[in-house]
């Protein structure tokens, strides 16, 4: 069952897509953090699948401060151009604040446990959600720009799972080395790499989608949430 949730902040209101599990009262919740294409079908499908696994899934419209209601794909040059314009205009700190507001809004409707999972831009935001909010567990898929924020890991107190594509054209080897050196021995962090995989290997229907490694990563994420949000 899906619906739209309005989230109130001092800066204004924004919407979020919500998918609820068919059965069970007060399920654990997961905030799904968008890529650069907005709250599109890919993000809604992720929410629906999480709901099918018994989670209350919510995907906030983090581009609302720039242009509310962005819902585009990775299928045309014009959409890619629009996506990068949004990415370049996006305020990361404000985005984390909006995720924090989403966590606060959804926690009373949940078991009390709230996790977060993000992809691409959302992968960076998931890492910052782990370090700056009271989320109970976070998962980051191929976070872009994460290497610039690894110092924040000293604030990390809750479990974090990282998925890194070894051939990610948006997270080059030098950036990966910074990430690994800073994070691989952190007691709260589990880090998985995927040999031969490029950026967004878990985006179903995307150019670099790999069904086997997407299933592997998604299975690890699901097991992680079932353990940490129980």
Automatic annotation (TrEMBL):
It comes from the Bacteria. GO terms for molecular function: hydrolase activity. Residues 14-228 form the Dienelactone hydrolase domain. SUPFAM superfamilies: alpha/beta-Hydrolases. InterPro entries: AB_hydrolase_fold, Dienelactn_hydro, Dienelactone_hydrolase-like. This is Carboxymethylenebutenolidase.
């Amino acid at each position: 069952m899906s619906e739209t949730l309005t989230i109130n902040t001092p800066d204004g209101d924004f919407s979020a897509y919500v998918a609820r599990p068919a059965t069970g009262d007060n399920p654990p919740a997961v905030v799904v953090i968008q890529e650069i294409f907005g709250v599109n079908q890919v993000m809604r499908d992720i929410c629906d699948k999480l709901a099918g696994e018994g989670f209350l899934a919510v995907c906030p419209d983090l581009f609302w401060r720039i242009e509310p209601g962005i819902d585009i794909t990775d299928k045309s040059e014009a959409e890619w151009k629009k996506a990068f314009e949004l990415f370049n205009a996006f305020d990361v700190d404000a985005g984390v604040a909006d995720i924090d507001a989403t966590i606060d809004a959804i926690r009373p409707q949940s078991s009390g446990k709230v996790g977060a999972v993000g992809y691409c831009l959302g992968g960076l935001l998931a890492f910052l959600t782990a370090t700056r909010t009271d989320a109970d567990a976070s998962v980051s898929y191929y976070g872009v720009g994460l290497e610039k924020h690894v110092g924040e890991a000293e604030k990390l107190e809750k479990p974090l799972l990282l998925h890194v594509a070894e051939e990610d054209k948006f997270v080059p080897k030098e950036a990966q080395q910074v990430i690994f050196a800073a994070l691989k021995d952190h007691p709260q962090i589990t880090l998985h790499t995927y040999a031969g995989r490029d950026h967004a290997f878990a985006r179903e229907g995307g150019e670099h989608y790999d069904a086997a490694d997407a299933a592997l990563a998604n299975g690890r994420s699901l097991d992680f949430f079932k353990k940490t949000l129980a």
